[in-house]
TrEMBL record:
Limits of the UspA domain: 2-151
Name of the featured protein: Universal stress protein
Highest taxon, organism lineage: Bacteria
Classification via PANTHER family: STRESS RESPONSE PROTEIN NHAX (PTHR46268), UNIVERSAL STRESS PROTEIN UP12 (PTHR46268:SF6)
Family: Belongs to the universal stress protein A family.
GO cellular component, one term: cytoplasm
Main location: cytoplasm
Keywords tagged on the record: Cytoplasm
Signal peptide from the UniProt entry: none
Localization annotation: Cytoplasm
UniProt xrefs under InterPro entries: Rossmann-like_a/b/a_fold (IPR014729), Universal_stress_UspA (IPR006015), UspA (IPR006016)
Length: 155
């Protein structure tokens, strides 16, 4: 395996997912790609669900304008750059895509010729799983690229 794409979301557990994916890539001496997908701008309207403002790990940030897609792209690029700095590898490539989470992940992995996709799996409320489904589950069902899923459920 030569390329590992790590899909990071808005959850504070993104740091754990990035670290696990980076360790996997390092063990295989593979190139690392950090990827974030931006969906509907309304999704980012609350502090609680902001991919940037809701993050409290090494990525803690003060104020980021979230009123336009361009501002979200800028903030997301900053988010990925900070994660790249945290991992300590300046050769890591970063990608920000706009669109459905699972489709963006799969399309980016195919475009980049990733050999494996690393992503987290969150424990959500039952109603959310029924209505929205799990991004990890959708990627698993629709992708022919192997997945390395990092469980991020809080204990």
């Amino acid at each position: 395996m030569e390329k590992v794409m790590i899909a990071l979301d808005y959850d504070p557990t993104a740091q754990k997912v990035a670290e696990m994916g980076f360790a996997l890539a390092t063990a295989m001496k593979a190139e690392v790609i950090l990827m974030h997908s931006i969906t509907d701008i309304k999704y980012y309207s609350s502090m609680a669900s902001s991919p940037i403002l809701g993050y409290s790990g090494v990525m803690a940030m003060n104020q980021v304008k979230k009123d336009t897609v361009d501002n979200l792209i800028t903030a997301s690029n900053h988010f990925l750059d900070k994660m790249k700095d945290h991992l300590g590898d300046k050769t890591i490539k970063t990608i920000v895509q706009e669109g459905d989470f699972s489709e963006s992940i799969i399309n980016s992995a195919k475009k980049e010729h990733a050999d494996i996709i690393v992503m987290g799996s969150h424990s959500k409320k039952m109603l959310e799983n029924i209505l929205m489904g799990s991004v990890a589950e959708k990627v698993l069902q629709e992708s022919d690229i192997p997945l390395f899923i990092v469980p991020t459920k809080k204990r």
